[in-house]
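Justification of resources, computational component.

The compute hours requested in this renewal are based largely on the per-chain cost of generating structure records like the one below. Each record pairs the submitted sequence with a full structure-token output. That output is archived, and it is also reused by downstream analysis tasks.
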Amino acid sequence: MTSPSPTGRNLIPWQAALLGAAAALVLLGPWWKHHGYLRDFYDYGLVMAGVGRIDAGERPYVDFVTPIQTGLFLFNGWAEQLGDGTYQAMTRGAAVLTVLAVVGVLGIYARRWGAGAAAALAAAFTAMTAAQHTIIWHNTLGALCIAVAAGSAAVAPVWTRAQWPWHLLTAAALVIGGLTKLNAHLVAVAGVVAWALYAGSQRRATWSEVAATLSGVALCAVVIPVAVELLWTRADVPTWWYNVVALPFSSRSGDLATMLDAKFYFAVHHDYYGALPVPQVGALGLAVTAAFAVTGIRQRGRGQAGWVVASALFAAAAGAGLLATNYEIAYVAMGAWFALLAALWVGFGLRSSGVAFYGGLLGPALLVGVLAWLSAWEGQRSQFGYSRAARSEYRAGEAIGADFAYLRGTSVPPETAQSMQVAAARRAAQPAADRTRVFYGPGAEWLERIWPTYQMPGMPLWMHGGTSYGAAEEERLHEALSAGGPYLHVIVPEARDHWGPRIAPLLAGKYELKRMGPVWFRYDQLPRGSSRGSRWSSSDPLAAT
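The structure output for this chain reads:
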């Protein structure tokens, strides 16, 4: 286990700083290319909606159900508030996070590995995580918290006054992780606890120091994050548990079983964002983990073999678990996996040179990092969507209509812009009393920022069976869409026009479906006692064919 350098331990050497600055510029390239464009609102629109509802005085967990924790909305909301209040201000938060990711990882490893190796790891990790998105995203922030917590704890595993800067990094990562992404947070906490126990077992710290460290970890990882969320949201413990633990784990815990299938490591089973040029990322993660185990036993001796093997198994289980359960581009989970392995190399004091280091850790990290940067440059994750329009045809929000000032500086596909214009005209033609009786379906939630609507207390932020909607939520939505309920209209993109077993028959029989421009649908509730005879209606003069 390594110790901090006695002098200048909190400073990045100038060579590493120069390399880090160059890496940050390269890694900001994808953000610069894509931050002014949105091909689809399905993911980022949820953050827009959540931030808007918080600005309107609502609170997560209490006023709306969300398995996405409050940190995502708070950090993006702060980015908006520090800017001009538009979506573009939110994107600038992602640029800041990209720079912080480079600086954080570089600062941990620069005095242990040398400038070149540290900068390479920082660049590769950031390419896999923060560079994939044009706003702050909870999965990437969770991966960064793993990297900082595990890396700083590997350097200074037991909390002492002399090493307080390292412990401050660990504490910050634990608090932020606890507010942001629970499964990643559990990995980070386990890593920090393991390093403290390892130090005690090796008699490099007293057990009283270990106990004090574990108390500090419990405070920063559990007490503070949970207390902040409970106090700010005004949720009780059962409500918090339902949102943060029950919903996400009940819907995705079954994905962990895929870790037992060898095929999973050669082709990630839920890569929704396009084919990976090297789909065997899981197998590569296992190979790099095995390389650490072999190197660790050789360099630390058989007396440390048990700890080395246990650490390797933990890294493999955590990395593969994140890869299986995060419905995200695979590179993000791989970034967390490599961050855990890098921390193990430092914590066990393995040599940062030779074939084992470059071929067994840094080389594979750079390979995946380059592939991840190319993916980010193409916008594989941040520009996910179905439009085939050229960017030269995209239209900026302020040019679409006065209602869309929030999207000033953000361009969307022409077919989406046309549907937005039709929706605005349709709304203007409605009676004022009906304008807030609209339910925004999957992919249209962001319209709450443009046209506020009635919000049913306690309903999920977005409608998606299996992640946010259970049987109880679907039943309540059925009541809200039925005759006498608060909603008379539904707006949903054509690509997301998928409903659960209770909602689909209701819309099919009691609502009239009309096109709203090329890519949006609008459902209008029929008079009580009526039923729809055909799927389509062309009677609306504003409906585009």
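Strands lie at 64-65, 395-396, 411-412, 438-440, 459-460, 489-493, 511-516, 520-525. The CA atoms of residues 429 and 522 lie 14 Å apart.
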